[in-house]
Amino acid sequence: MEKLSRYLGRWPIALACVVVLAAATLLPGLGTFGMFEPQERHLSDKQAPRPELAKKQAAAMPQTPPPAPKDGCWRIPPPDAEARTLSTRAMRFGRDTFGDSDAGRRLPFALLGLLTVLAAAGIAIRSSGSRAGLVTGLVLLSMPLLVFQSRQLTSEIGTAAGATFIIYGLLALSRPARRWWLDIPVSLLALVVGCVVAFLSGGALLGLVVPLVAFAAAGKLGVPFAIDVGRAARNGALRLAKRVAPKLAVGRERWDYATNDNWPAFVATLLAIGVVGALAYQLYSLVEPQPGMTPPQRALFGKAIVATGCWSSALGALWRPDDDLRYSFDSTFEQIAYGTFPWGILGLVAMAGLIASSDARQRLIGALTLAWAGGAWIAAEVFQRKVGFTIYSGFPAIAIAIGVWLDAALAGRVRDRSALPKGALLVGLFVVLAILDLGKDMQSFPERISSLVVGGDQVTYPKTSELLFLKTKLWILIVGIVVAAGFMLAMIEFRRVWRIGIIAALGGTVLAAAFWSFGWQPTLATHLSSKAMFDTYLELRKPGDQLAIMGDMGDAPFDYAPDAKVEQLTSREQVVQAIARPNRVFAIAPQTELCQLHREIGGKPYFVLDDRNLRSLLLSNRIDGSVDKNPLRTAILHEEPKQIPVRPKGRIVFDNRIELLGWSIPKRVSRGDKFVVTTFYKVLQPVPGNWRVLFHFDGPIRFNGDHEPIKGRCQTSTWQPGDFIIDSHTVTAGGGALTPGPYEVWTGFFTGSNPNWKNMTVSEAPGDIRDTADRVKIMTIKLD
């Protein structure tokens, strides 16, 4: 361990390790998992369409842009807009430079992500040493906010990258290395490039104000430098006075330009004031106050301060006069927690530990990262309330703080096992509990992480998604537990234990980075991108087979099946006609059309060849070379099932519309067991509204199996007279708290939710098996 620590203590080796790890995590497989739909696909088609489509769009557009309003106020982005256009520019640059493909469009974002990791590691190396830089790079690579934005088009990675460059440049200029003749030009280049990238990606508010204010605040707003400048001016005046009056006794203080390191903070302060002033000038105007306005107008020197409502070239957006109340002032917290998992929860602890350190460099990094992360949060909250959705960009600051603090906390243990910060064990316990709690939340609300870079809950998490032998979302908790357990062990004083802990924590961090890139994204893309579906088509098709598509899939057919001749369909009737052709036909139709297609195709043969995509299905009129995955093949029949295990002794009908023909339920189950409940129905009349199946297992304590019929595939409103429905559902027999014994099984249909639920009327059933709540008792099971 000691040899490895010394080996990694050399900055060229540490930096090379960071570059290799970042490249191995962010660059491979960029074009293998397809565009996420609809958000990423929409961006790709709109912002960087294939060249021939771009030419058609350009020909259809007017040759001159629409003129600005007479007052010079743009309510739409002007043609020469610069701020917040980096994503569009990067997509087009990637398409034109690296190829018209998914990988070509994504590569510029991946390179920005790699540079972000490199710059963050450079900040840690300058402030605390090479090992701190390596740990910072690992922690940053394990954060979903970095990985997702580096490998998807729904990205604002340039804002984080630009801020990291700016902080690195200012920090390097404040304390140049020994080879200043090389270090200063590199620092200036990082500063200039950072300002350009940050402005193009996040605009003045998100991109420039945050890092400039953070560095200025960490450097006490450049006040020490201003004081030194005042002292130098005073000394100069005194020397001049002494020349004029030689006999005058005057004193002077020396100002050492070489050792003063606060001038970058002073420059950052001036730049921040200038940027904020430019923003205020563009966003607000001073007008005559109008009494009676709600809310009351803010006034300055007798003038009301009102939003202009015009496009701001500095902000890169329109500033709303009124707040968007859909966003609360803590709406970004969830994005930070999920987007920096698993290490992010240690961020505030690390910052506080650095600020309390006796080392001046660590105190500076603690203050800098706290101001940076906090400033990014405030700017994001304000932006969401006044402009629209944005992605939190302060996550590199959290990674830097954690990397520097971890290195400082553990470096001494290589020499002395007792050299551990006070309360380290308590911090370890906190991290374990916090990661368990957050990982558990991700199991309940996985759509929060699948929608991390698009805002809201717009991307549905595919419940059937599996990675290897486990549910995909479960791997989030597993990776988090590995990191948490390793960190906890590293906080224990026993020498062998903490060594194992360090290895486990760092290994879990590498595993987390690999999971987000090569586990989570490709696995979800199987369900959220049409690429996997087109791959199935390409694998099964033969010469002469036709491909018909219902609905708008954007540029996906051209990208994923470029040599296919696509027949565009506009209605369900055309899909039915295509399936009825004598030759083999592949058809892609929306998932929502499956129930109606099943009814209209009737008893004619059709097959579902790929049902993994959440939005579309791949259908065909032949099964050659594949397996039928039609979920309705055994769920909705046009003839009565011949083998129904148990039939009722009397007729059971709900609302004269649905008849219960029978069921298949085990007579004996154990507590905690999962068992399948299958019911058989006949549809007598159309069913208005959407009803759920009610299943109550009543005993000393009730457990239930309420569910959407046919796994939510076809709601009851789509059921047609003459259909026979076979509904299967897996029920969990409670847990250890249940009392063994007999449990009565009651069933029916209901809608709504407690306390406003309503059961479907039982119109016909034997009197001894029905109750006043419109339920029917069909049997009794024994719970062991």
Give structural notes:
By secondary structure, the chain is of the alpha+beta class. It has 24 helices and 24 strands. Strands 13-20-17-15-14-23 form a 6-stranded antiparallel β-sheet, with no helix packed on it. Strands 16, 18, 19, 21, 22 and 24 form a 6-stranded mixed β-sheet that branches. α9 (157-174) packs across α10 (180-218) and α15 (360-386) runs antiparallel to α16 (395-411). It is globular and about 120 Å long. The relative contact order is 0.07. The model is unreliable at 249-259 (pLDDT under 50).
Short précis:
The protein has 784 residues and is of the alpha+beta class.
List descriptors.
784 residues; alpha+beta; six-stranded antiparallel sheet; six-stranded mixed sheet; 24 helices; 14% strand; globular
Please specify the SSE layout and strand pairing.
Layout: H1 2-8, H2 11-26, H3 39-47, H4 51-60, H5 86-98, H6 102-128, H7 130-141, H8 144-151, H9 157-174, H10 180-218, H11 223-244, H12 263-283, E1 284-287, E2 298-300, E3 303-307, E4 311-312, E5 317-318, H13 331-339, H14 347-355, H15 360-386, H16 395-411, H17 424-444, H18 447-450, E6 466-467, E7 470-471, H19 472-490, H20 495-528, H21 531-540, E8 546-550, H22 556-560, E9 566-569, H23 572-579, E10 585-590, H24 594-601, E11 607-610, E12 616-620, E13 636-637, E14 652-654, E15 658-664, E16 668-669, E17 674-683, E18 692-698, E19 703-704, E20 724-732, E21 741-751, E22 758-759, E23 762-764, E24 776-783
Parallel strand pairs: 8-9, 8-10, 16-24
Antiparallel strand pairs: 1-3, 2-3, 4-5, 6-7, 10-12, 11-12, 13-20, 14-15, 14-23, 15-17, 17-20, 18-19, 18-21, 21-22, 21-24
Helix pairs in contact: 2-6, 2-7, 5-6, 6-7, 6-8, 6-9, 6-16, 7-16, 7-20, 8-20, 9-10, 9-12, 10-12, 10-15, 14-15, 14-16, 15-16, 17-19, 19-20, 23-24
